[in-house]
Backbone:
């Protein structure tokens, strides 16, 4: 059973998108741990380790992705959890997507991505497999 | 495998997280892991927290974590949420209410989906509780799915069962019904700052007076408002007093021995059932009897008895 943690990091309070994705993942047969708004990278890493998820989905609409994603990746490495795949979703400019990938984000989905695309990516890349 | 289990680092949350996942996904691995850690289990206090959806169980759990941490106890929490009967997926949201503890290395929180299991827990919850004990947590707090009236499995897992309710969930008839309220060692009326709390407390008091008690424990009714913390010190105190009562009365040993018996019988029954199913899938007399029943040539009771007679020595009585 594939486990996914969905989080909003930083001060951005727009959680409609993350909730829509969480529901789509549930309907695809994944177990989704939802941690709500205003999380710090440290909190997300600790929760991901305790929940032993396969994937972390972080939603960032504020533009602070370059400030928030690298510390999350660092925290995961510090917790022996670099194998947990980090998916970044939100409003991410083209130029930053490649940078985030280079830093260790497994994939970046922009605001036009469909939930089907996210489900397929997780099935193909992080699979203990849904049902 | 047992050797590897012995070598694990009991301080590592990464190791604990991975062990729990293996227990959830693979019953064979669960059996080996529990056997390997067995001599490190049995020292934790187990508290169960149950009640209908939306009464504030997770928020109460958050407050209980704070109280336990104040006493220096290391706390592990299992929060069970329901799985979708259609997709098998789940949204696990209990830890949202407990986020202020995420920087505290003395607190470990794990969300579990119930998967196909009924009864308020997941099939793997029992074994996960053992592994948490083995990782030197002093308190294992288990929050059930939001329950109705008959999901009482938590009493087979916890030393102390806390049943939470809230005002406005029904009139006095609801409290007369058998089931969930009967298993409470401590009753909580949460959201006690809302209208109707006093009536709910009075109805529970009336019910408690009428329910026969098996031991000398007088079930306390505690009023809380978990979002503000009102009454949670009293709740923690009631739980602590029940713990003392369990020890001094000998009821703790009695409960744990009943739990062990039930657990072994459950495992035997589950294994027997899968053996029987395997037998029925192969050609032979039992499969023929089943086929007769499917054609309505034999009634279900006679067919079951005939199959059992062919599987082993007939039951006496």
Residues:
């Amino acid at each position: 059973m594939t486990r996914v943690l969905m989080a909003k990091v930083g001060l951005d309070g727009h959680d409609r998108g993350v909730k829509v994705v969480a529901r789509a993942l549930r309907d695809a047969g994944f177990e989704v741990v939802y941690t709500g708004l205003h999380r710090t990278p440290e909190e997300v890493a600790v929760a991901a380790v305790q929940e032993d998820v396969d994937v972390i989905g972080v939603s960032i609409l504020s533009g602070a992705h370059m400030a928030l994603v690298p510390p999350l990746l660092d925290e995961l490495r510090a917790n022996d959890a670099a194998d947990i795949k980090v998916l970044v979703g939100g409003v991410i400019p083209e130029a930053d997507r490649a940078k985030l990938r280079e830093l260790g984000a497994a994939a970046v989905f922009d605001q036009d991505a469909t939930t089907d695309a996210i489900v397929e990516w997780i099935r193909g890349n992080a699979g203990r497999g849904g049902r | 495998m047992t050797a590897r289990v012995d070598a694990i680092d009991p301080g590592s949350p990464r190791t604990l997280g991975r062990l729990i996942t293996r227990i959830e996904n693979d019953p064979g691995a669960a059996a080996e892991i529990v056997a390997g850690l067995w001599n490190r289990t049995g020292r934790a206090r187990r508290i169960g927290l149950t009640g209908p959806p939306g009464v504030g169980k997770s928020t109460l759990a958050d407050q209980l974590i704070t109280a336990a941490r104040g006493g220096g106890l290391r706390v592990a929490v299992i929060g069970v949420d329901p799985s979708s009967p259609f997709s098998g997926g789940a949204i696990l949201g209990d830890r949202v209410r407990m986020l202020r503890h995420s920087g505290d290395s003395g607190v470990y929180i794990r969300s579990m989906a119930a998967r196909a299991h009924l009864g308020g827990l997941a099939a793997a919850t029992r074994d996960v509780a053992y592994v948490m004990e083995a990782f030197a947590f002093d308190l294992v707090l288990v929050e059930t799915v939001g329950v109705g009236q008959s999901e009482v499995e938590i009493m087979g897992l916890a030393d102390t069962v806390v049943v939470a309710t809230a005002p406005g969930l029904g009139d006095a008839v609801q409290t007369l019904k058998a089931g969930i309220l009967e298993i409470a060692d401590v009753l909580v009326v949460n959201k006690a700052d809302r209208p109707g709390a006093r009536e709910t407390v009075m109805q529970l008091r009336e019910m408690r007076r009428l329910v026969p008690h098996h031991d000398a424990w007088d079930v306390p009714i505690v009023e809380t408002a978990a979002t503000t913390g009102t009454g949670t010190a009293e709740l923690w105190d009631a739980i602590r007093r029940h713990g003392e009562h369990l020890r001094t009365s000998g009821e703790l040993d009695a409960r744990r021995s009943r739990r062990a018996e039930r657990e072994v019988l459950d495992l035997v029954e589950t294994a027997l059932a899968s053996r029987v199913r395997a037998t029925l899938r192969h050609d032979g007399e039992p499969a023929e009897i089943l086929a007769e029943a499917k054609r309505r040539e034999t009634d279900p009771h006679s067919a079951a008895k005939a199959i059992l007679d062919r599987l082993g020595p007939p039951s006496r009585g």
